[in-house]
Amino acid sequence: MPDDIAIRLPMQRSLGTARQPAEGISPLLAREGHSRPRSLYIHMPFCTHKCHYCDFYSIVDTRDRQQAFTDRLVRELTTLAALAGPIDTIFVGGGTPSLLRPDLWRRLLAALDDHYDLAALRSGSAEFTVECNPETVTPELVSVLVEGGVNRISMGAQSFDRRHLQTLERRHDPDRLPLACQHIRAAGITRLSIDLISAVPGQSIDDWDRDLRTALALRTEHISAYTLTYESGTAMTARLHRGEFAKASDDLEADMYEHTVAVLRDAGLDRYEVSNYARPGAECRHNLAYWRQDFWLAAGPSASAHVAGWRWKNTPRLDEYLGTDDDGFAPICELEQPDPTRALMDRLMTGIRLREGVDAARAIRDATRIGKEQELRAAVHAAEKNAWLTASGDRWSLTDAGFLFADRVAADLIGALI
Question: The pTM is what?
C-alpha cells in the first residue's frame, strides 16, 4: 500500500499569538548571503462546506468577511514584500479561493502587481496557480484571474462518481467540471491540474480507473492523485471510528496506486513525486520549491513560511488574523529557528518523495557536521537492501517499489539523525 503515515516533527516553539521573525530577517538575508524568497503562498480559508476528509484550515463564513479579509491580506502582503525577491511562483490555496468575489480578486491582484517584482510573470516564465472548485468557476472570475497574471488552475475534482463524492461529503456536481474547464481554456489558461482521491470507502479499482480516464479526457497536463488518509480530528475519521464504513484494504490501496502509475504513464504523465504526475515540463514549480526546501513567503491565516532557515505558521483563526495587525505582520502560532539537524531532516523528508531524490553528497556532508554520518549511511544501506532506494551515483532516489513506502523510508532516514 502507499505508505501515507504522516511525519510530523515537533515544532521548536509553540507561541500562541506572537510576533513573526520576518522583520528581522531582511538584514540577515543580506548579511549571510541567503537568496530572497522567490515563491509566495496565499491562504484563503473560505468554503461553502467543510469536506469530511479535509484537515486544512477552512471555514464556512456566515458573517461575510471577504472584504475585511482582503483588506487584511493586502496589508500583510504589502509588509512581506520587502523580503521578496523577483517572484517565480505564486500559489493561492485554501479553502476555496475561487469563492472570493471577482472585485476583491481585482484588488488583491493589483496589490501583488504594485508591491512585488512580477516581471517573470509578465514575460510568461513564472507560474501563478489558483485552486478552484468547479461550482465556483465563472467566465467573469476566470477573466479577472487571467488579467492578473494567473496562468495555472488546480481543480478539486476528487472523484467524478457521485457516490464517492457523497462519501467524502464533497458537495459539487461532477458534471460541472467539464464546463469549468471550458471557461478556463476559453479565457486563455492552458495549464490545468486535477486533484483525485483513491481508496474511498466502497470505491473499486474499476471506479478509480474511470476517474483517472475522465480526468485525462479533460486534457489536463497534471494530476495529483492522493490516497485517502484519515487525519486526526476530521469528520471522516470520526465516521470511520463509528463504524459507518470500512477502510480500503492495504492490498486495494497498493493496487490502485500501481494502476495510477501505469495508466498515467501510458498517457504521458510521469510520476515526479509520490502523488503527483505531469507531462514533461508541466510539473508544479511552486510545490517543487517546497519539496526542494527552497525559501517561500506566506500570507493568510494558517499559512506557513520558510525564509533563511526560519519557519513560522500564521495562527489558523480568522478572527485573530483580522483583529491582530502587527505593523502588517500576522499573528503566528508556531516558530522554528534555524537548526542544521532539523534542516537536514526536512530535506530528507520531502526530497526522498521526489523522482529526482536527494543530493547524496550534500546529505552526507551535513550529516557529518552533526556527527551522524555513519547512522545515515546505515539507514540508506538498509533501504537499499530492501530494494526501496537506489543509492548509486550522486542521488538517493526511490525505486518503483520504494514509492509504496516513501514515508517509511523518510522516517528511517530521519530517525538515523535523532
Answer: 0.93
